[in-house]
Amino acid sequence: MREMKKALRTQIRSQLSTLLPTTVSQQSTQITAHLLNSKEFQTAKNVSVYVSKQGAPEVSTTQIITEILRSGRGCFIPRCVSKTKMEMVRLNSLSELEALPVNRMGIREPALDEDRENALDMVREGRGSLDLVILPLLAVDRQGWRLGHGAGYYDRFLEEMYALNAQGGVKNSTATIAVALREQIVDESLPRDQYDMKPDFIITADGLLPAKE
């Protein structure tokens, strides 16, 4: 399974590398509009969102982050603490985002020694939870299963988040939405294992990804 996923990731990355920046930008704008109009976003008070890499063939989250901050919602972004563990920490402003250091993958990320509010600590202390997690992906199939970039960060994070929500009596209160370019949608079923978590929704430039009959 691991080797199958690895080979598929290599193939998909090669295909996505040919995308024009204008294509990515146009679709990102459409996807952002659909996301911001969704019930899940409209009702969320605390939102987690990945920080997109500039120039990468993936949905840009710049305008999503801008709207989260503009609307006064809590904005939480990823910070890797090890090769297998990720946490979500609070971002307060766009200027703060632009000043963040770039990690080894070329993505802006808060330094580990920065003291920032942690979303899971917020749950543990009974101060609320993440209402919405916006997920990145490398590919998605017509059944809505996503193929991530290979580290398993989001699957582990969501498992811990759901467990803490349940302990606090708010089981399944965190919605998940993955965003995908049209070129990231594959017709064949993606390989998956028992640890893979299926997002609640997939949003594309055309709206919600229609499930294959």
Automatic annotation (TrEMBL):
Substrate binds at V51, E58. Its cofactor is Mg(2+). It catalyses: (6S)-5-formyl-5,6,7,8-tetrahydrofolate + ATP = (6R)-5,10-methenyltetrahydrofolate + ADP + phosphate. It comes from the Eukaryota. Gene3D superfamilies: NagB/RpiA/CoA transferase-like. One of its GO terms (cellular component) is mitochondrion. Its EC number is 6.3.3.2. ATP binds at K5, K6, A7, L8, R9, R146, L147, G148, H149, G150, A151, G152, Y153, Y154. Keywords: ATP-binding, Magnesium, Metal-binding, Nucleotide-binding. GO terms for molecular function: 5-formyltetrahydrofolate cyclo-ligase activity; ATP binding; metal ion binding. Pfam families: 5-FTHF_cyc-lig. One of its GO terms (biological process) is folic acid-containing compound biosynthetic process. Belongs to the 5-formyltetrahydrofolate cyclo-ligase family. NCBIfam families: MTHFS_bact (TIGR02727). This is 5-formyltetrahydrofolate cyclo-ligase.
